[in-house]
Amino acid sequence: MVSARQPLSPRGPVSSRVKTVNLEPARAGFRMPAEWEPHEATWLGWPHNANDWPGKLATIHWVYGEIVRKLADGERVRILVQSRTHEDRARRVLTRAGADLSAVEFFRIATDRGWARDFGPMFVTRDRPVPEAAIARFRFTAWARYPDWKKDDRVPAKLASRLACRSFPVVHNGRNVVLEGGSIDVNGAGTVLTTEECLLDCHVQVRNPGFRAADYESVFKESLGVTNVVWLNKGIAGDDTHGHVDDVCRFVNPTTVVLCQERNSHDANYRVLAENRERLENATLANGTKIEVAPLPMPAPLYFDGRRLPASYANFYIANTAVLVPTFNDPNDRIALGILGELFRDRPVVGIHAVDLAWGFGTVHCLTQQQPALPAG
After folding, report:
1. Collapsing DSSP states into helix, strand and coil, what is residue 188?
2. C-alpha distances in angstroms, 230 versus 220, 282, 287?
3. Domain over 26-372 is classified CATH 3.20.20.70
4. From the CB of residue 376, how many other CB atoms can be counted at a distance below 10 Å?
5. Which pLDDT score is estimated for 21?
6. Dihedral angle sign, alpha carbons of residues 65, 68, 73, 77
7. What is the spatial distance between Cα 185 and Cα 323, in angstroms, rounded to a whole number?
């Protein structure tokens, strides 16, 4: 188990050390660690918006309970709640689910939704001159799709104060940059994965009007310490984020990715995923070497109320002592867990039932955001 530093009080006073600085994180020596690097904590937003899971919110609480139970075995779990009443309800669920509440902290910060991957703080770290974690402060606009996002957008700034860490506003050409955590995946060694559909489409769900590939590449270099961007084409069918990469392709170590593969040539994902594979065959890492690609199956199409849902095994989360993988009561569940089990030899691969989660158009990775542990000083 990776030990975390002494937990900060979620209701303590704001430290005088908190600063918002106008400097690129990379120039100050920061980088975004890979997800498999040691965590201090995992962040979640306890679900409360019934519009995210119409008719299923009570069931979703129990899925969260199982996720927290698994996470708390290896790291702190920090949960955003709306109020004392909301916190008390969450505590009751977690207690009944058997989660270790001594590893759980609650932060009473209002949110619009619970998708912590996308609105939560994106942490960067450095080891010199002294070990330090900070927040690369991207903005959030609900995937350029929904009107209620202002509470979510304020979360990183509020957490910078609560955690007493520096916050770097990410600005490019005089504009605040909008970016969701699920739209990128880094290997911690200079390379990031993303999709053109999400970031470069100039007609649908536009986050940063007028931005081109070169603009994003500059942003990634300055804010995350990334020097190499691998542009895939599109995301999977049913994804209301318009192409998040965390449903498609993920790093599992510094040189290897898993890429979703659809074998049914009549499925909407078949050509999209095949093209992404072709792009990866020609892609390289920051050091110029080829990327190793391991195929990951897709579950059978999942529908609810006549609408296709973004069901994907790639939406896993790498915690300190487990890899949590969404499963869908599908024959390919076992195959996907086996593939990931071979790739992650240092921690168990655990299935999380995600059929109900997917009705919210996201699963395990979409709900979680890692806070990396400070580098050893």
Report:
1. coil
2. 12, 10, 13
3. no
4. 7
5. 55
6. negative
7. 16
| Total residues found in the chain within this entry | 377
Tell me the C-alpha distance between 102 and 140, whole Å.
31
- Which two three-digit tokens encode residue 133? 């974690």
pLDDT for the residue numbered 365: 98
3-state secondary structure of 194: strand
Per-residue model confidence as pLDDT tens digits over 43-64: 999 999 999 999 999 999 999 9
Tens digit of each residue's pLDDT (9 = 90 or more) over 303-326? 999 999 999 999 999 999 999 999
Distance from C-alpha of 208 to C-alpha of 215, rounded to nearest angstrom: 10
ω into residue 295 within 30 of 0, thus cis? no
**Coil, helix or strand at residue 168:** strand
Domain locations in the chain as residue ranges: 26-372
The pairing of strands 369-372 and 39-45 is antiparallel
Q: Is 187 helix (H, G, I), strand (E, B) or coil?
A: coil
Q: Please confirm, yes or no, whether 198 is among the known catalytic residues.
A: no
Contact 57, 50 (CB under 8 A): yes
Alpha helices in the chain (DSSP H): 57-71, 84-97, 116-119, 142-145, 150-163, 196-199, 213-224, 270-281, 332-343, 355-358, 364-367
Q: Which amino acid is present at 28? A: A
Which of 134, 112, 138 is closest to 27 using CA atoms?
A: 134
- Is the model's pLDDT at 126 over the cut of 80? yes
User: Which amino acid appears at position 365 of this protein?
Assistant: H
Kindly give, in sequence order, each residue whose CB lies less than 8 Å from that of residue 28, ignoring residues fewer than 6 positions away.
126, 168
Element containing residue 28 per DSSP (H, E): none
How much is the pLDDT for 24? 85
Q: Which residue has the tokens 């969450």?
A: 90
Q: How far apart are CA 321 and CA 1, in angstroms?
A: 6
Q: Which residues of 334-352 are buried (b: 16+ CB within 10 A; e: fewer)?
A: eebbebbeebbeeeebbbb
Question: pLDDT for 335-358, tens place per residue?
Answer: 999 999 999 999 999 999 999 999
Strands 249-253 and 256-261: antiparallel
Nearest to 362 by CA among 41, 179, 191, 119: 119
Spatial separation of the C-alpha atoms in residues 53 and 47, rounded to whole Å: 9
Q: What is the DSSP letter of 47?
A: -
Out of 198, 249, 260, 366, the active site residue is: 366
